[in-house]
Write a structure and sequence with these properties.
Strand content: 5-15%
Number of helices: 13
CATH superfamily of the domain at 210-328 and 346-374: Ribonuclease H-like superfamily/Ribonuclease H
Order of helices and strands: HHHHEHHHHHEEEEHEHEEHH
Helix content: 40-55%
Radius of gyration: 28 Å
Shape: elongated
CATH class of the domain at 210-328 and 346-374: Alpha Beta
CATH architecture of the domain at 210-328 and 346-374: 2-Layer Sandwich
Distance between the termini: 100 Å
Length: 400
């Protein structure tokens, strides 16, 4: 009988096994972390869970406890072939035709056009726009007055960036191109276009009911080709582009905080540090940083350690799928192959804004500081039109 009692005790010990490493509350916390970051990798989940709970798990333990919490990856849906005339039914086509007749016209319409006058080009500044930034360019004090009005020189710079023409092909109603280019280089050294953008950015954030100093930012880069003019350049093996890379830091509205232009062969993880440092020198209030998967790993860890930033890696939906509850909804919404990534689309939209002027479609300059100055001028010109339009609309709305 003693032998049987000993065997039963041993069996009880075997059934007990090793104690669980996570408590039920910690398992629930792991579930919340995984569902809050559905596209995060297992390494990102390990880091996030360790930050919130103080416990570091291995990959095997993470998968085991995720399964215990009822969380699993759902594979990404495959792209479906577009519907053809043979597969579409008559009711669907009728609905589509009815919808097309009720949709508002999309594209460049009359409300986008600037009336102006007979002597002003579309890229030139209006009176309301010039009144917002005139003090930055006007020179007051002793010395010989300028031969040409500063407004005409600023208009010439806006004409060059919007039309993409060389300096020597400026229209004759502008000041001589040598004078315009000399002022442009002088203003570039003084960072006047950057100061112009920063003033307008503060005004626009105030209109949008935001604090003047941002607390969150997004980082991204864009590789563009260069012309045969020369200057620093490199080859981006990922994008297959020979030229330069524009590194941007923007706020959550898509407005510039810092710009860095360097050869395209510089990796994103190497160019992120200097451009983020530029942004933090101007706006030390930034505490949250959104990046894509190119900055994950050592780059993100270095930014967290050096600047005490909360760096969040926004990943694309991987082929493995997304973390979701094991109990799926009965009527799941139709899956879409294209997914808008949170926060990431903001900086991508800013890249598209920069490429709209013809001179910015390709980097035409030898000097990197001149290329950065064109970016500041492009975004400042866009903001200037927004702020001036709102300034004109406000008195009209008040009178009404």
């Amino acid at each position: 009988m003693m032998r049987s009692t000993g065997s039963s005790d041993a069996a009880g010990r075997r059934r007990a096994g090793r104690p669980e490493k996570l408590s039920p509350a910690q398992v629930a916390l792991l579930r919340d972390v995984a569902l809050a970051h559905p596209h995060a990798s297992i390494d990102d989940l390990m880091r996030l869970f360790a930050t919130q709970s103080g416990m570091r798990l291995s990959n095997v333990s993470m998968y085991r406890y995720l399964a215990k919490a009822g969380v699993k990856r759902v594979p990404r849906a495959k792209k479906t072939a577009p519907a053809t005339a043979a597969t579409r039914g008559a009711p669907a086509s009728n609905n589509a035709s009815a919808q097309s007749t009720t949709m508002e016209p999309y594209g460049y319409t009359a409300r986008h056009r600037d009336a102006g006058d007979a002597t002003r080009y579309p890229a030139c500044l209006t009176d309301a726009e010039w009144a917002l930034v005139a003090d930055l360019f006007e020179v007051t004090g002793p010395g010989k007055p300028g031969k040409y009005p500063r407004r005409r020189i600023v208009n010439a710079c806006c004409y060059v960036v919007r039309s993409g023409c060389p300096w020597r092909m400026l229209p004759k109603d502008f000041p001589p191109w040598q004078n315009v280019y000399a002022h442009f280089r002088r203003w570039t050294d003084k960072r006047l276009f950057e100061r112009m953008h920063d003033r307008l950015r503060s005004m626009w954030r105030e209109r949008e009911k935001r604090d003047e100093s941002p607390t969150a930012a997004i980082v991204d880069s864009q590789s563009v080709k260069t012309s045969p003019q020369g200057g620093p350049k490199g080859f981006d093996a990922c994008k297959k582009v020979k030229g330069r890379k524009r590194h941007l830091v923007v706020d959550t509205l898509g407005l510039l905080l810092a710009v860095l232009v360097h050869p395209a062969n510089v990796q994103d993880r190497d160019g992120a540090g200097p451009v983020v440092e530029r942004a933090l020198n101007k706006y030390p209030t930034v505490k949250k940083l959104y990046v894509d998967s190119a900055y994950s790993g050592r780059c993100a860890d270095a930014l967290r350690a050096k600047h005490q930033l909360d760096v969040e890696v926004v990943r694309r939906p991987s082929a493995a799928g997304a973390w979701t509850d094991a109990q799926l909804a009965l009527f799941a919404p139709p899956s879409r192959p294209f997914v808008i990534l949170p926060k990431r689309w903001v900086v991508e939209r800013t890249n598209s804004w920069i490429e709209r002027p013809r001179r910015m479609a390709k980097d035409q300059d030898r000097r990197l500081d001149v290329a950065e100055s064109w970016i500041w001028l492009t975004e400042a010109r866009l903001l200037l039109r927004r702020v001036a339009e709102k300034s004109v609309e406000a008195p009209m709305e008040a009178a009404a």
